[in-house]
Structure formats: structure tokens, C-alpha cells
Amino acid sequence: MAADRPNILLIVGDDMGYADVGFHGCKDIPTPNLDALAKSGVQFTSGYVTGPYCSPTRAGLLTGRYQQRFGHEFNPAGANTGLPLKEVTIADRLKQAGYTTGLVGKWHLGSQPVMHPQKRGFDEFVGFLGGAHSFFDAQGILRGQEPVKTIDYTTDFFGREAGAFIEKHRDKPWFLYLSFNAVHTPMHATEDRMAKLAGITDQERRTYAAMMLAMDEAIGKVVEQLDSTGQKQKTLVMFISDNGGPTMPGVTINGSINTPLRGSKRTTLEGGIRVPFVVSWPGQIAPAILDSPVIQLDLTATALAVAGAEKDPQSDGVNLLPYLQGKQTEIPHAALFWRFGEQMAVRAGDYKLVRYDSNADTLTGKGNQPVTAARLYHLKDDLGETKDLAASLPEKVAELQAQWDHWNEQNVPPLWGGGNKVAGNGESRSGQSGKAAQKSERSEKRRKQSTSGEHP
Prior knowledge:
alpha/beta, ten-stranded mixed β-sheet, four-stranded antiparallel β-sheet, 12 helices, 28% helix, 15% strand, disordered C terminus
């Protein structure tokens, strides 16, 4: 019976720095509610997302599949781009399993009517369709299809809306995707929170900190609502950022910090793809800190499993619950993979092979900088990715490249963006050859016929 199944709360922050939460050692930004959530559950220190940009990782999250499987490799570019219509979302699957489904906040997966959240499995929607939004202006914020006329501050507003959803549906199982636009640009903070953080002298960092504080407070009120309505023990809560903090020139810098990771949003270095990552379910999951590599696709698989919902047979995620409950002890993934245009990465064990945007080294912010040659790092000994081992361990390079090539054979060319240049094994610009490339071209044509709408 659906009534016996847990609620599912999936919270996503936007462009957060890896270092900017207390449970990762942050000292200048108070995040007591996120810290309490992390303390109540499992903190994954090697938690990843499938790309270094907002929309692609959300496409992966909502489908449970690497977004490169269906061409959503970059942020939507133009009015007719967005999550391909043939893709089934977690909301579709949970709705079929008897859940009430809601989205509060940022969508960024298509602005055409056929791509509206309520056409993609969500019963209720309050938020905006694009990739960024003013924190003070109501224009562009919708309740369903209708414009919202007034707001105070989006982070506070979204927190209240999430609380209202939890209250409204307290007697039946629900899924809520709470997708903040904090701490993405524009850099908008409330005066009272700026005043609380007067000790931070750098204005950009202070504004960012005030935006983080707002999100932490909103999350605290949402968790409090779970508690006050008697739903805390029966709610699986998951929290991630959609990608790493934008810290290098050429991206929408927001004052975030990724230390001790190197790299930024828009790179396949750790700073672009490793994020704060927490799973909490009081009474079901014992508090712990785990270093096993996991990825946001696993959250999708876990949610569907605990709900008893149908899993996509093409899912790339792993149900984490048996690992979190000690029923399985091996690592969830033998390897994790990334492709972002000509950038790539693969992590297997503690080794990572990566080609990344050289702007992370030059820090000039100039466009069209080349992608680096393949570099090999041992993350356990070198989390900051500073010691390239490629020359001394050519066999390990070849091994990881072969794993990545095998994974990439199942991908398709991007449907838009990036000049259609993608990482490969040297045989072709598309990263594919022979039958795999022909299959990808056919798949791309089919998907293009079913794809419409979104601007960056």
C-alpha cells in the first residue's frame, strides 16, 4: 500500500561551494540546519553529480540516467530545447506508484508548454522555468500556470511553499523536489542577513554567505514542519548541490569556495562535480560519514526503491539503502564517468583520469581555451589534483581510458550546445566510431523530433 511508504524530500542547492557548509568545515557561514541534517544521516564526502552545469545534472537527477545517454549535455540553448519528451521522470514514476508529487523552485528543463513540470509528472508546481531568477522580483514565478503576483525573497518564499505542501499532504505519501535558486547569481541578499554577517569584509563573500544563511534557515523550517506534523520519521530527506561552486573567471562567480578541491563549475575537476551530499532517514539510516563514491543518480534509484515504484531498466543509479543499512558492504560503483563537451573524467577506486578546461589553470576567463591532455590523479593522496601521474602510470591511464570509452559508446552526441564537440578516444570528434556513432546519429534524430524548449 502506498500509504505505508515513506515521503521523499529531495533538496537541491544551486552553485554551492564544496567548502561552504559547516559539516565540511566552513567557519564564516553559519549553516546549523544543514549541519543538523548531515549529523542525523549519512554524509558522503565523495558525493558527485554527473556534470558541472545546472540543467544537465538536473536532467540526470530527474531521470536517474547519465544525461549524455539522451543528449542533454549542456544547459538548454534556445526556445526549443529542454529535457527530451521521451524521458520519464522520477515524478512520473512516483505518481504512478500512488505518490502526490510537487516541485517548488527552479526547473531549468524546458520552458515550452509541453515541458512544463506539470506535464512531466508533477502534480503541483510553484517556481520558475528558467536557469536563474531575481530573488526579489515575482515576474516569471508561477503557481501552476498562473503568475505569482508578489514575493518577498525567493528562498524564504520557496521554503514556505515547501512547508505548505508538507502540511497539505500530511496524510498520504508525497514526493517533493525543493529546488532552490540560492546561491546562484544574481547576488541578492536580504538586509537583515547582511547585517548578521557584518564580520565578513569581502562584499561578494558576505552577500553569498547571507544567501547561504537564507537557504539554511528555509531548510530548517521545512525540517521543522516535518517534525511538527509527525512526518520526520517517515520521510527520506536527500540534499545535494547541482554542481560545484563557480570560482574561476569566465563563470558566474558568486563568492563560493571549493577548498580543498581544485577547479570550478564548468570543469570536470573535483571542484566542478563533487558536492555536499547528504541522505537522512531517522530510524532507518544510522548517522555516518562515508567516503565511497556516489552520484546523484543514486538518489533517484534510492527514492524509487523505497517507494516501491517502477525503476527505469536503463537506470544508471544504485539504490543506496542496502549500503546505508549495512546489508551490502562493497562500494556502490566500480567507476563513475563524466563527459562535458571535450572535457571528460572517470573515477575508479582512488584513481581519476581527467581532461579539463585549461581555464582552470590559466584563470584568464578567455573563451575557447583548449582542454588539457589526459591527466591522472590519485584522489586519496592528492585530493587537490596537483600531481599528474599519467607519465609514470601509463597502464593505469590506458585502463581508465578503456573504461571510459566503453561507457561512452552508450552515449549520444549533444542535442544542442558545445559546438557538438565532445570528448573521445582520439578516433573521432564525437568520441564514438563505427556502429556506435551510427547508432548515436539515429538516436539523435529520433530525440530531436521529440525535443523542445528552454533558454539558458
